[in-house]
Amino acid sequence: MAKQGVGITITQHILNQQRQKPEATGGFTTLLYELIVAAKVISREVNKAGLADILGATGIINIQDEQVQKLDVFSDKIIIERMQHIGQLCCMGSEEDADLIEIPSQYPKGNYIIVFDPLDGSSNIDVNVSIGTIFGIYKKKSDATDIDLLMDDVLQPGLNQVAAGYFIYGSSTMMVYTTGDGTGVHGFTLYPSVGEFLLSHENIRIPERGKTYSVNEGNHAYWDEKTLTLMDYFKATDKKSGRPYTSRYIGSLVADFHRNLLKGGIFMYPADNKDPKKPSGKLRLMVEANPLAMVVREAGGYASDGNGPILEIEPEELHQRVPLYIGSKEDVELAERFISGKGGKR
Ligand code: AHG
Ligand code: MN
Ligand code: MN
Question: Binding residue per annotation — 308?
């Protein structure tokens, strides 16, 4: 019989997953549901870019030393406003905010923590190229309620995430998420006329090995010998190992990651000596690397800082940066061998 209606909605999917966990209270479902509403609002604004006065920079430099775009601020605000009242969170951490974000006293608090990059790829906003939102969710470990005492609860290794994922605002808007523990990575596409995310990519598996490498080659002059050797490896000709790899780089982590997740390949943002204040490269452990590392691991891939798993790093600060090698397992393991100095030659 032909399928009636619109298929499985994200809400239905989250509820189904919740029912498989008898200990689940529904709090987590509420949390994800509200985040989805925020993403729909961001998606709507992103789609208006060029029409409304939402393009361009605010003139403000954020905690990351980067120009803040108007849509960065908007997205940050929307997520905070939508998430703060639901009674499930004890605090939040955002790429755009120097300190932890407190839950206002008029709202109840809960045991979850959400960290997020409200708008990833902001340099691509003005030129109509895919951008995204990245999130990771943790459970609080202590009984602390005071915001000054909650930092230890937030600074957990990525392995402790109870869920992670991203929204990509591209040719269509998608949500990709996982709750770990073998539940898989699932992708949902926003059906604009219905206003719902519908299951479109069930149980995504990343190919063991890809043919694509993604890196900002413009940083060549700032890389060390090991990094240069690795990049040469991907570009060298060798029929047996399928080289040279092809190159794809958008400059929006979410978009580069999403392509490689579906098609296979490796995304890299190595350590470099461009800026002495950022020896670990540009990307952020808590709001970018960890959530995507959880997604890729659950899809059969791997994420490394060049020396070991991203997910095992004990964070020292909220805005900590980390070198990132992420994607197909064999490609990332190979990169790790080059960078760690344990094997790997041209
Ligand atoms: P954000 O817009 O959240 O600051 O992140 C931008 C990041 C990431 O999306 C992308 O992979 C990287 O910056 C690109 O950096 P380069 O321009 O240095 O290649
Ligand atoms: Mn980002
Ligand atoms: Mn951002």
Answer: no
Residue from 64, 94, 216 whose mutation best tests the ligand 1 pocket (most atoms within 8 A of CB): 216
Confirm or deny that 261 is annotated as ligand binding.
no
SS3 content of the chain, % helix, strand, coil (to 5): 35, 25, 40
82-123 pLDDT tens trace: 999 999 999 999 999 999 999 999 999 999 999 999 999 988
The enclosing domain of 197 has a CATH number of 3.30.540.10
Domain end residue (candidates: 142, 168, 201): 201
167 and 303 in a common domain: no
CB 96 near ligand 1, within 6 Å: no
If you count DSSP H runs as helices and E runs as strands, how many of each does the chain have, helices first? 8, 15
Question: Which pLDDT belongs to residue 1?
Answer: 44
Please report which helix (H) or strand (E) contains residue 67, including its range. strand 67-69
Is 67 among the domain residues? yes
123 is in an annotated binding site: yes
User: Measured from the CB, is residue 179 less than 6 Å from ligand 1?
Assistant: no
Tens digit of pLDDT for each residue in 256-297? 999 999 999 999 999 999 999 899 999 999 999 999 999 999
Full residue range of the structural domain in which residue 160 is found? 10-201
From 272, 283, 287, 322, the mutation candidate for ligand 1 (largest count of ligand atoms within 8 A of CB) is 283
Whether residue 122 has its Cβ less than 6 Å from ligand 1: yes
The closest alpha carbon to 185, from 299, 61, 316, 25, belongs to 299
Residues 242, 190 share a domain: no
Question: Is 282 annotated to bind ligand?
Answer: yes
Tokens of 251: 């400059």
**How many domains does the chain contain in total?**
2
Tell me, yes or no, whether 171 and 217 share the same domain: no
**Same domain, yes or no: 61 and 193:** yes
Element (H, E) at 196: strand 196-201
Kindly report the pTM of this predicted structure: 0.95
